[in-house]
Amino acid sequence: MIFQSSDESQRRPSGWWKPAVVYQIYPRSFADSNGDGTGDIPGITSKLDYLTELGVDVVWLSPVYSSPMDDNGYDISDYHNVDPLFGTLGDLDDLIAGLHQRGIKLVMDLVVNHTSDEHPWFQESRDPNSPKRDWYWWRPPRPGAEPGTPGAEPTNMAAAFGGPAWDYDERSGEYYLHIFSRKQPDLNWENREVRRGIYDMMRWWVDRGVDGFRMDVINLISKPEKLEDGVPEPGNQYVPIFRFVGRGPRLHEFLREMNREVGLDARNLLTVGEMPGVTIQMARAITDPANAELNMVFQFEHVDLDRMAEGHKWDLKPLELPALKKNLSDWQVGLGDVGWNSLYFDNHDQPRAVSRFGDDGPQHRVNSAKTLGTVLHMHKGTPYVYQGEELGMTNTYFSAIEQYQDIESVNYHADALSLGMEADVVMRSLSAKSRDNARTPMHWDDSSHAGFSEGIPWLPVNANYLAINARAAMGDPDSVFHHFRKLIELRHEYRVIVEGRFQLLLPDSEQIWAFTRSLDNSILVVIANCSSAPTVVPAEALPDLGRAQLLLATHAATGTLQLQPWESRIYLLR
Ligand code: NOJ
Q: Terminal CA-to-CA distance of the chain, rounded, Å?
């Protein structure tokens, strides 16, 4: 049950998502009901008891709309329908009803920065005389250049998935803009009709019973006033796209308009905007309820700490714990009592947290997965659990490029080799960072294909499913699953976890992640050893724990401040 504190309900009509925990489902990889090797909606519906047992409040469903699947559904060709790969609209209605019966809400993915190039809007827009021409970003070639040749693009922006961000359309002699793949043309939000069309569609889904939207790269909808060349780096004539986009001048205006016209606040919907490049200052304004934009945003700073530079995701850099702690702490303090944070380590675009921030070897996998869960869930904000995170699922460590399916990974591999990079360096980057790490099928049990499908899964199942799977975890009281279940329970039970003020302790420690959360007379104290070596927490850094109640711990209590590798504890003082 989600409680609502009385002072909060006086301040705002609702805020039901504050004590809530969201579970993200990537439908392709969750559960396959018909043996075609791809997960589907009836598969999800068959697993509702599992979600109930875990105790989550909300499901965020990655896209299930009609799509040519160039980017696994983030390229939508019909916003009002479900792709046959995933089922039917009727199946989705059944899923919504089943979730609602269990008190779980459903948040849809909303992908409206771009459509598929197979969407009828874009098909029409290809005709220069069509009224929909202005619905997308069409531009003439660079003056004097031969259209369709490298360098003739209107500007030198690189697309996020490789190659230039402009694609030539011979029929009209112009280029269209695509921040992602060439099959994901960007919608022109400057055009009022585009915005109207999208708000209509959103209302249609709300009327159908959905409880909110996770908005894909929503800060990209407002483009810079001028689309111009950037300064290239040596060896690449195109400049990473995120140097240009993300902070467009009309973003706040568009979000407010959307909120008003769809009735996002008025209808008590959960709204979370994915925003690459968002700053604390921007997020504070966006999530300030007085501005009526969004409830929360997904920021990227903490998942960008292990890369060498902006636009260089694949140039690996070792993660430093003080930097990660500082970043989350900055966001806690920065949004403070005004806005609201979303909390995530894992999603369908990120490698598995236990492999990236923890230790996924046999000795420490369980405790490091639990401890990462502890620190994340005890921050202030709404936690997001990505399917399999609650089992401590790990990266895949594919050894051959043929095993990868993700467009970003496959394109990167081809581009990097063509630039002369060594194949094993490229494969190492993929194994650390590829999005397919998170997309291998969910492990349900130790039967063939991890109980995910009776057919051949679209992406190979991680070989470690025999040991790491839901059935085993549910039967083991010490599993990562039960630890996450208890973290969720604690959030529902203690106001201090939802609302308490955050303070980071021992900011420079390279092993210990410790902080307090304070509300009225309650202080929550979290201490975690985020390393594979033992450590001791200096007592003087903590409030006196003499009378503290131990709410949850990874290891049996010892009464000292010595922590085993990946040991964490949550204390309550009042
Ligand atoms: C962000 C989504 O999370 C990602 O999976 C997708 O590829 C891009 N946006 C483009 O839609």
A: 23
Tally of CB atoms within 10 A around 551: 20
* CA–CA gap between residue 20 and residue 16 (Å, rounded): 7
Ligand 1 within 6 A of CB of 161: no
Per-residue pLDDT tens digits for 489-525: 999 999 999 999 999 999 999 999 999 999 999 999 9
Alpha-carbon distance of 338 to 285, in angstroms, equals 9
- Secondary structure of 203-257 in HEC code, one letter for each residue: HHHHHHCCCEEEECCHHHCCCCCCCCCCCCCCCCCCEEHHHCCCCCCCHHHHHHH
Catalytic residue among 32, 71, 117, 216: 216
Exposed e or buried b for every residue in 102-111, given b needs 16+ CB within 10 A?
A: eebbbbbbbb
Helix, strand, coil distribution of the chain in percent, nearest 5: 35, 15, 50
Q: Is 109 helix (H, G, I), strand (E, B) or coil?
A: strand
Identity at 497, one-letter amino acid code? I
Cβ contact 115:76 at 8 Å: yes
Q: What is the pLDDT of residues 383-394, one digit of tens each?
A: 999 999 999 999
Q: Residue 327 phi/psi, 5° resolution?
A: -60, -50
3-state class of 12 per DSSP?
coil
Kindly state if the Cβ of 494 falls inside 6 Å of ligand 1.
Answer: no
Q: In what order do the strands lie in the sheet with 166-169?
A: 138-139, 174-177, 166-169
Q: Phi first, then psi: what are they for 369, rounded to 5°? A: -65, -40
Give the C-alpha separation, 105 to 212, whole Å: 8
Rounded distance between C-alpha atoms, residue 239 and residue 312, angstroms: 11
Is 216 catalytic? The answer is yes
> Rounded to two decimals, what is the model's pTM?
0.97
Neighbours of 132 (CB within 10 A): 19
